[in-house]
Records
---
Amino acid sequence: MFWYRNLIKLSTPIKSKTPITKNLLQASLSHFSTANQPPASAQAQPSGLGPTKPHDKPRVVVLGSGWAGCRLMKGLDPKLYDIVCVSPRNHMVFTPLLASTCVGTLEFRSVAEPIARIQPSISSAPGSYFFLANSTAVDTENHEVHCETVTDGTDTLDPWKFKISYDKLVIASGAQASTFGIHGVKEHAIFLREVHHAQEIRRKLLLNLMLSDVPGLPEEEKRRLLHCVVVGGGPTGVEFSGELSDFIRRDVHERYTHVKDYIHVTLIEANEILSSFDDRLRRYAIKHLTKSGVRLVRGIVKDVKPENLVLTDGSEVPYGLLVWSTGVGPSPFVNSLGLPKSPGGRIGVDEWLRVPTVQDVFSIGDCSGFLESTGKPVLPALAQVAERQGKYLANLLNKICKDGGGHANGAKDMNLGDPFEYKHLGSMATVGRFKALVDLRQSKEAKGISLAGFVSWFIWRSAYLTRVVSWRNRFYVAMNWLTTFVFGRDISRI
């Protein structure tokens, strides 16, 4: 019978495969044998990527994966350069929509764009790489970057140190949130700059909602748990407050009816909220936020404690969730570099975004600023500034390589062409409940178009939908907006 013959074949031992399997196993284990390990002295030396040879493609090393670094990598020609990116995250965050992920309007992956999609050569070209690591130092004399791998938690492998030689170096490592030296901010507040910050905000917000529904909880503790405090009245703080108030009115009041009268939002600002916007738009924002239930407080935070913060006038504000959004400042890595600094502590650059005191080093984004000798003001830490700098520098580096100056020290006396010029395209901010602000003036003193209301909200969404990097994420964002409008926000605590 057919099945019986097959059974006999399967039960018959195949002797010829046994030696092959054994040999493969021995070959695999041989890689881990101590006999093949290099001497201890060789292991102690940091490994990495050595200098490129004259006949090789020159290497551009990009430190950072923010707006500036990713726009630069997108514009670089992989036929001209090997591109190496060093960053503690393997994606770019579309920060204008990050506040929407905290309350479930958008999913987290909708605002994260993998670097390999932005510049495919990083995952396919032989000499291009992405390294999940932090930059610890820059040796400008030897054209080297010192790096250290990023590890998760305390039970993982020890960080591995290595070096990368560069022909052109672009520092686009961004900035860190400013705490102004206020005690307790780093320990108790949550910043809103990365996807993991938005995830932490969402988890804590939903946890406080569920804890406050536990029977027997004192009313005072319930009010503290459900008090959400936002410090900083810039676009990020206002947009998060608007999203949070919209979440409370549309979803919390419907699904957490027992605690709906206890939850509220307070926005604390030292000066005026949205100070860069038109006065009429600011008044509209204040009116709309107040109508949505956001309490506006003008004050300066002096101290942050685990369950309350103290203002300079002595008043205490209890909180269950504290979000800190007061601007940015230089990171410790930028401060440690022995490079000239612009006003404010950023890396100083000239009109072509070069660091003028060293060869082949450029800096763009929030970590850089024009030197005083250029006569230009330091540009604001905005996504549109970083994106425009990245686009300009990509075109400049492509031009340098085509003119024969791609390798190290190859562009000393080269004519770089037109310097970088920035023109402000305007500002936008949503305040929740289908309302937004659009200010298209080039400066606060200039004249131009300024809108507020539903039309501005439609412009805001349309503009950001078109600015999302890939069609994949545009589809995700559009579908998230549609499902949220029809079914409400997802309130699962995952």
Note: The two ends are 56 Å apart (CA to CA).
---
Amino acid sequence: MGVLRLGVCVSGVYAAFLLWAIAQERLSAPFPSTSHHPHASSGNSGDKFPSSLFLNYAQALASSLSAFLYLVFKAWRDGDLHRGVAEIVGLKQLFPRQRSQSNKAIKANGNGHGQTEKEVGVNGTSKAGSEMVKEKPKAIPWRKTLPALLLQVSLFQTIASPIGFLALRHISYPTMVLGKSCKLIPVLLLNVILYRRRFSPHKYVVVALVTVGISLFMLMAESKGKKRKGGNDSAWGLCLLGINLFIDGLTNSTQDQIFSTYPSYTGQQMMFTMSFFSQLILLPALLLPLPTHPLSLLSHLPLPFSASTSLPTSHVSFAAPDFLTSLSFLVSHPTALPPLLAYALLGGLGQLFIFETIQHFGSLTLVMVTVTRKLFTMLLSVVVFEHTLTKGQWMGVGVVFGGIGVEAGMKRREMLRRAKKDGK
């Protein structure tokens, strides 16, 4: 069942996100305008989608809807609809009433040793024969509770997506895809540093091979300069990509911590709650007018912060809310609607397979799946959007696939060893 489940998850991730990535790249390109509109540019190339926050919100909305439909359908199939929607989608697990349930159990049945609530001592313990019975479980610090951890990963996920879109404006898509393949490094390091997890030696070999492949790809891309289709990779774009990878590492390592601490919480329940939290975080930013030049706010701060701004005026101007701007853009650029719907719906479908994978196989296995998916995405991008790669870049791709091969070989060896042990 484990191999079958992994096969279904891998196939689902590949199928959904290969198409999703094409929609994502199309959204980063200009769209022609059908009318005279403030978004319209003077050239003929068209206009880019004005708000990455709106794209992120559409993705979160589609993900929460996909998770909700999946959980309700699963509960209906298993005959568990009587539990109620709040419990099915995991909202009740966020704030369990452990204390009241514990008190009710003691009142009704005693403490399991013929003792009732009245016989429990002042310190929460009492003696029944030679055994001590505890009434209250040990309190968990708030930062380690399920709501706090889910809010944390939701915030990370919400921040990471706009940074990724911003990075894509300063680097080419193949560089973005290969750079995201480096996600193994922050996931591995942050699991070790933050949560003290240990991994087998071959995992570090895989990470090293992927790192060498990514570095080779970057160096060979720089040597080609402006001749490479898709533009130069600026230092600012690579910096944004690094920040995006670090946030992704925090997200995946924290998700591993949630599943190890709260094993009854399912992947689709986490998907629903994280998407719901992401919508709550994004909604104010979409509905409120934001400063046109955020750095102009520095001029209103006390010294020495105000001296750090290079803007010629201290006047702060506000743009129209991103929600209204995006709707207006879709009206004047109707060709942007199909890739937006494809981006949101395919992303929601792919997230179902992602959370199923991370729940049952862990974040490193998930990242290995997404790494291969991203490499195939890059190759598909080369074919569809006519990006060109140098021979050195193809060599880097081969090194990365070599690391993936090492991981696949070790997985197969481990499965054969387990099968032999079970046979004995």
Note: The first strand starts at residue 125 and ends at 128.
